[in-house]
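[retry 2/3] FAD-dependent 2-octaprenylphenol hydroxylase: previous attempt timed out, resubmitting with same input.
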Amino acid sequence: MMQSVDIVIVGGGMVGLALAAALKHSELRIAVIEGRVPSLELAELPDVRVSALSRSSEIMLRNLGAWQGIISRRAAPYSAMEVWERDSFARIEFSANQMTQPDLGHIVENRIIQLALLEQVQKQANVTLFMPTQCQSLAVGEGEAWLTLDNGQSLTAKLIVGADGANSWVRQQQDIPLTHWDYGHSALVANVRTAEPHQSTARQVFTPQGPLAFLPMSDPHMSSIVWSTEPNRAQRLLSLSELEFNKILTAEFDHRLGLCEVVGERAAFPLKMRYARDFALQRIALVGDAAHTIHPLAGQGVNLGLLDAASLAQELLALWHQGEDIGLLKNLRGYERWRKTEAAKMIAAMQGFKDLFEGDNPAKKLIRGIGMHLAGHLPGAKDEIMKRALGLKGDLPDLAKRKMVLLEP
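[retry 2/3] FAD-dependent 2-octaprenylphenol hydroxylase: success.
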């Protein structure tokens, strides 16, 4: 059976669903292909995969109608941030009060963001969801693209969007080259109960082995940790008993929140930078991790992907209103230039930050200490850093700006 649509979004995760939701006021016919059906049940324990949603992401999710579905489940606003280096005077603090903001962002489980967006997309008459369904083949012609699915169905579309993650099937099918390197670290993630309350403060300590972040959860004594360390060490930490792990974690975090006790599973995944040579080809566009992955140092990966979705939607809506072909490469160049530039800037910033804080060289430690001191005390420097962390700087799509009319109450 052959079905004709305007856009096929391969990947029904956070970014793919955000793109579909951002096109809700158009007459574009959209198909979303996702290999797994997300569980609608909310587990008692939070997931270990979380994101630090920036202010611009919050504004975007409000505009998409998904924000209430997030905060009604489980979301933790954080109002302050502390960053320091082990055995050094390097330290900087930020607070929402300094920025006249209600908070600096929200820590949210990825699955909750996905569910809240799915609820919105399910209401859209212009979207057909294929879940659970896998893609089998992709062919691209001059005027359209063809996709075959494992349920025997075939789709034709003006545009295929790869929103299918770091190991993107769409990107691989199109042989799009990657610039990539291994950061030489794995990220160990877990939920941790602390003796002292986190006071809605996100904390990160830089150690010679790598950064360790504690992200506050809705329970005042629960934090989600992201521990970047050498892969063999990450595996050793995973293999430790809970008692041994807790002892090492508490010491690594300078006893800042008292005794730390891991709750539930521990997991680790390799950290790699990826940057696709092309974010767009004829009839093809890439968004989110399919186009780029960055170091989780500042928690900007999901925010970057959501802005991809909003930016591509803005370009596609403009083309649709003008009666233009949404899949022509020349019409997708604007999106590609826009988002490649923003992703490259973020990758460069994260790499520079990582390089600066890596190692125990005394000269580097001195530079780091002076740099943090200046960032915290030079007029305007701290504000500039925080505006970027809040996602309020840069070339933002309209959906991520407060000027939008259709905000949730």
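[retry 2/3] FAD-dependent 2-octaprenylphenol hydroxylase: The first strand starts at residue 2 and ends at 4.
[retry 2/3] clearing retry counter.
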